[in-house]
Design goal:
heterodimer; A: alpha+beta; Aldehyde Oxidoreductase, domain 3; Aldehyde Oxidoreductase, domain 4; five-stranded mixed β-sheet; 29 strands; about 25% helix; B: alpha+beta; Ubiquitin-like (UB roll); DNA polymerase, domain 1; about 35% helix
Chain lengths: ~800, ~160
């Protein structure tokens, strides 16, 4: 039954990509297609007094200009959604700025012309009168009583405050031998998918078609209906050049603008974002500051934790509380502590809005835990590994329910630590540290974290009980599997892919269930709302594929197998129980029938069908997690399952710090990872390598920098500091899979996971290297300049 | 805006086109010739997704004007495999899972091909040095470096067979 599951079956996606035959939105061309460009705000904060597109519209080749007045007249604003559940005043947001700009790069107008170059030229001819306002770029500055408010409706930039609490935190602190306090910061960065946002809109009498690289086509589908009042919308997602969360939310603005332009001009309109636009306005991760207090016993046991979290959410209310709510997903990391209070504030600043991004909120939460563990060890004079061991959930406790309601199905955190210490040669690094001299200092950091998977949007109700209607609660996800007339097998998924090898993985499952080789199984095109089953839960975000799509594909293939056996038993005149399928042939005791023959019969020969059996060999199955209860909805104590599976991994980083230049070189990066049953080990390896490399790059200096006036200073990937092959270490991975008891094959999440603990691992290693200087690493990134300052005691 | 003649040999075929002086080679290849395997990731020479060969040299085609390439021989990702048979670099990228979203892949394949043409047996450090011209946001580079090592072995074996 599992001939292919568990093996690194050859990639189905790779052949088209290595030959340049991938199909991304920008590769598509329609007859009479126009090219659109967007005029963006040069100011971080300004009133928009007037926008006049007259001169631009007169330019040769220009077909239309959309101004804020047009957008206001022709579309409806987005209603605050789930990402803004904490918004106390319903502030509508249009697809572009209307009377005010709140960050550099905010869309102000759009031009469509016969050529891209012509549209870019015309942007210079749009006349905009801005009345610049003072910009606020720090949360402290923005929260000050006299600070200019981004939204008059709110009156303050502290747009939301709230808290969650589990257990009896005060009692825990009363019993503590010591309280360890720390202030920690994690900075703004992004996943910078190599393909920026892209939309191609076609308005026809029968409806609007949007080709776009959305991770959640559902978001674009709803946005087009909501903003434009359209009832017939089709969203097609071709190949997507990386997502990581970036392409879930803000892309809806551009889909609406492109659609408006297509309606206005009556011609197809393509809009392709450029790199600097994406850096300015494509969405950032949230800068987060934490004041942490840990109540600890003298032996390092953590009795309770209090965290005050300030999230810098940038210049939009549309994602006001999404970083806070995501901290519920790994609130207790791998630790058994029962008492925790998390207070949150979301502060608006004149910077790019924040969006989901490789772990959204979770790298910050893991950073809090792992930095605190190191600090506890230092203050108590204990070994940092031993402090972690003392607090880990023991393997006998699984399935383990965290105090906030997450159920960790399986795990063995102690063994992950044992293995990572052995693989990295921990004792050897400690020996080498004692012998070192010269200008280089070696350091090692060992951390542990979880990778939650499978979204439960009802999580938000634990914080915002007023949220009643909750799409994405639990989860529903569809897949269709079909045996073609020629005996080959095709399938359709309810979610798009942006590089995670969904086609390869799904084909392996189908191959095993149906008894065919994976080479006979292929995906039909890419996601298309008109042809694919819907999947609100998966939608290529939140580490959902492993739970929902895998379940749906398995369900559809299993149903199809049943039908194959029914049909074959009738044709062979044998009991179903005596049949077996091998390489696309159903074998009975004496005779056999191939999928090719079954295909011909099922689609065209009623005389050979068993009585009462429907023709065709096609099944669709919608999967919901069979173990979504208990705690799918919050209980009276606010306990809810924020996500459904919990992979875990221990990371060990060995760094060399040049104390004269502040440069950090990562010389070893070792991971031991429990992602449950591996369906395709090489695919999972790739997910781990990629997310670890991102977290390492983030820790070493990748990030956005703003000037005091709110100007973005990191407009290119070079300024932004993205690590290349040279700075990225050769990541080493060992798998230690413990099957999840509640999923189809025991699989768990495998996507963004290694981006969650890796910033903390580097911080820990650098601090360890610089221990002789008394350096404490409290914030990221650890750019050479910052490390040098730390060494100088600044 | 005036248009200028652009005569090229692209993937072995003669092309007679014209372009504005400001048109980038990458846009000429993609929009006029339909060679969409060459991708635009940054348009300022940082990501390498648009890498092609111009007269045998690895070039970021967003940093070259179409008119500058006039008279040159250009090879794009579409021209790397002959008559349906994949180039060993392409085979190695497939077998080693050296890609995820695929957007950077044509650029990496061209860069790896250029490297192995100059240096048939590069060390890991040499591979990392050479490929630092290109960015990938998905893979963390581990499997890309493995694929280049693998491709080097395949190319050397192929050389021995001859």
């Amino acid at each position: 039954m599992t001939r292919y599951i568990g093996t690194s079956v050859r990639s189905k996606e790779a052949p088209r990509h290595v030959t340049g035959r991938g199909r991304y939105v920008d590769d598509l061309t329609l007859p009479r297609m126009l090219h659109a460009c967007i005029l963006r705000s040069p100011y971080a904060h300004a009133r928009v007094a007037r926008v006049d597109g007259g001169r631009a519209a007169e330019r040769s080749g220009v077909k239309a200009v959309l101004t804020p007045a047009d957008v206001q007249r022709l579309s409806r604003p987005f209603k605050p959604g789930r990402y803004a559940a904490g918004l106390r005043v319903p502030i509508p947001e249009y697809a572009c700025a209307i009377d005010k700009v709140r960050y550099v790069g905010e869309p102000v107008a759009m031009v469509a012309a016969e050529t891209r170059a012509g549209a870019e030229d015309a942007l210079d001819l749009i006349d905009v009168e801005y009345e610049p306002l003072a910009a606020v770029v720090t949360t402290a500055g923005a929260a000050a009583p006299a600070a200019p408010a981004l939204y008059d409706e709110l009156g303050t930039n502290v747009a939301w405050q709230g808290h969650v609490a589990y257990g009896d935190v005060d009692a825990a602190f009363a019993q503590a031998d010591r309280v360890v306090r720390e202030n920690l910061k994690i900075h703004r960065y992004s996943s910078t998918p190599l393909e920026p946002f892209a939309c191609l809109a076609q308005a026809a009498p029968e409806g609007l078609t949007m080709w776009c690289n959305a991770q959640s086509p559902d978001v674009v589908y709803e946005a087009l209906a909501e903003a434009l009042g359209l009832q017939t919308v089709r969203v097609i997602v071709p190949d997507v050049g990386g997502g990581f969360g970036q392409k879930i939310h803000l892309i809806r603005k551009y889909a609406v603008l492109a659609a408006l332009m297509a309606v206005r001009t009556g011609r197809p309109v393509k809009w392709i974002e450029d790199r600097s636009e994406h850096m300015m306005a494509g969405g950032h991760s949230c800068e987060q500051e934490f004041d942490v207090e840990a109540a600890v016993k003298g032996d390092g046991e953590v009795l309770g934790l209090k965290i005050r979290d300030t999230d810098d959410v940038g210049g939009s209310v549309s994602t006001l509380t999404i970083h806070f709510t995501n901290k519920l997903n790994n609130l207790f990391n791998t630790y058994k502590v029962q008492h925790l209070r998390l207070e949150g504030r979301s502060v608006l600043t004149n910077k790019c809005p924040v969006v989901p991004n490789r772990g959204i909120g979770k790298p910050g939460m893991c950073f809090v835990w792992e930095r605190t563990m190191d600090r506890i060890a230092q203050e108590l004079g204990l070994d940092p590994i031993e402090v972690r061991r003392r607090n880990l959930v023991p393997k006998e406790a699984f399935p383990y329910t965290t105090p906030n309601g997450n159920i960790h199905g399986s795990g063995d955190y102690q063994t992950l630590l044992d293995k990572v210490l052995a693989n990295v040669g921990y004792e050897d690094v400690r020996r080498r540290q004692k012998e070192q001299h010269g200008s280089t200092r070696i350091g090692i950091g060992v951390v542990i974290g979880v990778e939650p998977g499978g979204r439960n949007a009802a999580r938000d109700m634990a914080i915002f009980p007023q949220s009643k209607q909750m799409p994405g609660a639990g989860g529903v996800e569809g897949a269709t599997v079909k045996i073609e007339k020629n005996g080959s097998v095709v399938f359709t998924l309810g979610s798009p892919s942006c590089g995670q090898s969904h086609e390869t993985t799904a084909a392996q499952i189908i191959a095993d269930v149906l008894g065919v080789t994976p080479s006979r199984v292929s995906q039909v095109g890419t996601f298309d709302t008109a042809l694919s089953p819907w999947g609100v839960s998966s939608a290529n975000s939140g580490n959902n594929f492993h739970l929902y799509d895998v379940g749906a594909v398995h369900g559809a293939a299993t149903r199809l197998r049943e039908k194959v056996l029914t049909l074959a038993a009738h044709l062979l005149d044998e009991d179903r129980g005596s049949l077996r399928i091998e390489d696309g042939v159903v074998h009975g005791a004496t005779d056999r029938v191939s999928f090719v023959e079954l295909g011909r019969i099922a689609y065209s020969n009623q005389a050979l069908l068993p009585p009462g059996v429907e023709g065709g060999l096609e099944t669709t199955y919608y999967h919901s997690h069979p173990h979504a209860e208990p705690l799918m909805l919050p209980d009276a104590h606010g306990r809810v399952r924020a996500q459904y599976t919990f992979s875990s991994a221990a990371h060990a980083a060995v760094v060399e710090v040049d104390i004269e230049t502040g440069r950090v070189r990562v010389v070893r990066y070792v991971i031991v990872s429990d992602n449950g049953t591996l369906i395709n080990p090489s695919v999972v390896d790739g997910q781990i390598y990629g997310s670890a490399a991102h977290g390492v790059s983030v820790a070493l200096g990748e990030g956005f920098v703003y000037g005091e006036d709110g100007q973005l200073l990191t407009m290119t990937l070079l300024d932004y500091g993205k690590s290349t092959t040279l700075e990225t270490p050769r990541i080493e991975v060992e798998h230690y899979p413990i099957p999840d008891p509640f999923t189809t094959f025991g699989q768990k999440a495998a996507g963004e996971g290694a981006a969650i603990p890796s910033p903390a691992a580097i911080a820990s290693a650098v601090e360890d290297a610089l221990a002789p200087f008394g350096v404490k690493v409290r914030r990221l990134p650890l750019s050479p300049e910052r490390v040098w300052e730390l060494i100088q005691g600044r | 805006m005036n248009r200028h003649p652009v005569h090229l040999t692209v993937n072995g075929e003669t092309v007679d086109g014209e372009a504005e002086a400001r048109t980038l080679l990458v846009h000429f290849l993609r929009e006029q010739l339909g060679l969409t395997g060459t991708h635009v990731g940054c348009v300022v020479g940082e990501c390498g997704a648009c890498s092609v060969l111009v007269d045998g040299a690895l070039v970021k085609s967003c940093l070259m004007l179409a008119v500058q390439a006039n008279g040159s021989e250009v090879t794009t990702i579409e021209g790397l495999s002959a008559a349906g048979a994949l180039h060993p670099v392409q085979d190695a990228f497939i077998d080693r899972f050296a890609l995820q979203c695929g957007f950077c892949t044509p650029g990496f394949v061209m860069a790896a091909h250029a490297l192995l043409t100059r240096n048939p047996d590069p060390t890991e450090q040499q591979i990392r040095q050479e490929l630092s011209s290109n960015l990938c946001m998905c893979t963390g580079y581990v499997q890309i470096v493995e694929a280049v090592r693998d491709a080097a072995g395949r190319l050397r074996a192929k050389g021995r067979d001859r």
